[in-house]
């Protein structure tokens, strides 16, 4: 792995060329990617932007993916055509004398009583036609689902489509704060193999009839997948901290593309987790990672992933995979332990099933500490003993067993001379 100075130079040869079916699968996976908020609530959004030349079927294929993904309500917004009003930027006086920013009429379709019944997709088409005035509300829409003073709802997804700036009518480059909120993916012209009977072949695209059922399926797998992604990315950034934050040169082409920041690395964690849950190919996963942080940090992160390829924490705790710290490279051992701690802390509190997995985690960390690898055990012990984790106590049916399992490990870590909150 290279230790060269990070660069945000725009290069495309490191971004895998994606087939039309791969682009469909990525878009559908993005629609079914959860984002956990600080209060524990879930929002469904993974903001991807596909950029390709005009007339290459971006909009028509997006409509197709929306239909196959089970959404009845969707809205396509074109900044250069619809104008500022479609994005809720006009202030209006309210009855109490204050100014409000009411949402446009189209937003009603996403209400609980509307066509989408609280669920759907907003497509920002021709995104590079948005001037500086419209780019600001687009940021709120893409990141938080806000239109004016109104929240579209946790189950309304967003996706962006764009022509290259030089091909867009009245094109405007994306400001760095907006560009950094998106995962940038290339859109190539469909090939002859992509077309049959003058329509686009949906081969490989899942038919989802019930969005709520698919959301439940994804959530049942998410915590395990995200714990692996979180640990892997964090360990990579510990190894190569020069990639944590690499701002682009102002007014350069890179300032409108993907570049590494703590926010975009958080999106990479989501990308890796959703790739595991939706069984995306290595090429599709690579496109999401490079599209989130750019080719420099993205390619280095992918190389780290290839080498370490972390197992499922749940498989370890339930005995389907063996984790022998004496036979694992230090970086990999630390990342696996971190993933186990994160996974345990994501479990529901005070249930018998959660307590059994927690006891297994404490037992495994005890075995690791007994080999002298206290620093590896500490990677899991810290989140399990600090707020909001606190998995050394339980009010569940196995509370006593949890406490008894945690005590020897906590004693071993404290005896090592390093306080948990100083790790």
Please characterize this protein's 3D structure.
Strand 1 (about 35) and strand 2 form a beta hairpin. Helix 6 (about 210-240) packs antiparallel against helix 11, helix 7 packs antiparallel against helix 8 (about 280-295) and helix 8 packs across helix 9 (about 295-310). This protein is an alpha/beta fold. The strands form five sheets. Strands 4-7-10-3-11 form a five-stranded parallel beta sheet, with helices on both faces. The protein has helices at about 20-30, 60-70, 80, 130-145, 175-180, 210-240, 260-275, 280-295, 295-310, 315, 330-345, 350-370, 375-385, 400-415; strands at about 35, 40-45, 50, 75, 90-95, 100, 120-125, 145, 150, 155-160, 185, 195, 200.
Key words describing this protein structure:
423 residues, alpha/beta, 5-stranded parallel sheet, two-stranded antiparallel sheet, 14 helices
Can I get a quick summary?
This protein is 44% helix and 10% strand.
Average residue pLDDT: 89
Low-pLDDT runs of 5+ residues are 8-13
Report the span from N to C terminus.
Answer: 26 Å
> How many individual β-strands?
13
Radius of gyration: 23 Å
Main sheet overview: 5 strands, parallel
Task: Identify the overall geometry.
Answer: globular
Class from secondary-structure proportions: alpha/beta
With helices defined by DSSP (H or I, 4 residues minimum), what is the helix count? 14
Strand line-up of the largest beta sheet? 4-7-10-3-11
Percentage of residues in strands: 5-15%
Helical percentage: 40-55%
Q: From N to C, what is the helix and strand string?
A: HEEEHEHEEEHEEEHEEEHHHHHHHHH
């Amino acid at each position: 792995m290279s230790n060269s100075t990070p660069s945000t130079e725009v290069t495309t040869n490191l971004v895998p060329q994606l087939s039309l079916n791969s682009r469909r699968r990525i878009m559908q996976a993005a629609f079914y990617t959860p984002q956990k908020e600080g209060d524990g609530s879930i929002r469904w959004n993974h903001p991807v932007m596909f950029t390709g030349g005009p007339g290459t079927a971006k909009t028509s294929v997006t409509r197709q993916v929306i239909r196959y993904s089970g959404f009845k309500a969707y809205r396509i917004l074109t900044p250069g055509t619809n104008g500022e009003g479609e994005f809720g930027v006009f202030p209006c006086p309210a009855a109490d004398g204050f100014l409000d920013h009411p949402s446009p009429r189209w937003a009603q379709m996403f209400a609980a009583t509307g066509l989408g019944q609280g669920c759907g997709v907003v497509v920002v088409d021709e995104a590079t036609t948005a001037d500086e005035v419209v780019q600001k509300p687009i940021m709120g829409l893409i990141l938080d689902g806000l239109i004016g003073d109104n929240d579209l709802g946790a189950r309304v997804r967003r996706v962006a489509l764009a022509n290259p700036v030089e091909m867009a009518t009245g094109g405007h480059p994306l400001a760095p704060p907006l560009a950094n909120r998106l995962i940038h993916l290339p859109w190539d012209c469909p090939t002859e193999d992509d077309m049959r009977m003058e329509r686009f072949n949906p081969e490989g695209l899942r038919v989802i009839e019930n969005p709520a059922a698919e959301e439940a399926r994804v959530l049942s797998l998410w915590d395990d997948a995200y714990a692996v992604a979180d640990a892997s990315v964090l360990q990579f950034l510990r190894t190569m901290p020069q990639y944590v934050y690499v701002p682009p040169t102002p007014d350069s082409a890179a300032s409108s593309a993907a570049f590494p920041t703590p926010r975009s690395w958080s999106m990479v964690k989501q990308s890796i987790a959703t790739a595991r849950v939706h069984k995306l190919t290595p090429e599709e996963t690579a496109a999401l990672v490079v599209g989130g942080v750019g080719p420099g940090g993205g390619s280095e992160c992918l190389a780290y992933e290839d080498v370490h390829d972390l197992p499922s924490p749940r498989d370890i705790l339930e005995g389907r995979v063996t984790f022998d710290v004496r036979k694992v490279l230090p970086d990999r051992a630390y990342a696996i332990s971190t993933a186990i701690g994160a996974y345990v802390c994501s479990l529901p509190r005070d249930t018998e099933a959660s307590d059994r997995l927690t006891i297994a985690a404490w037992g495994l960390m005890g075995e690791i500490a007994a080999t002298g690898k206290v620093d590896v055990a500490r990677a899991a012990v810290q989140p399990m003993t600090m707020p909001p984790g606190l998995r050394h106590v339980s009010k569940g049916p196995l509370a006593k067993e949890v406490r008894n399992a945690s005590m020897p490990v906590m004693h071993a870590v404290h005896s090592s001379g390093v306080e948990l909150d100083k790790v």
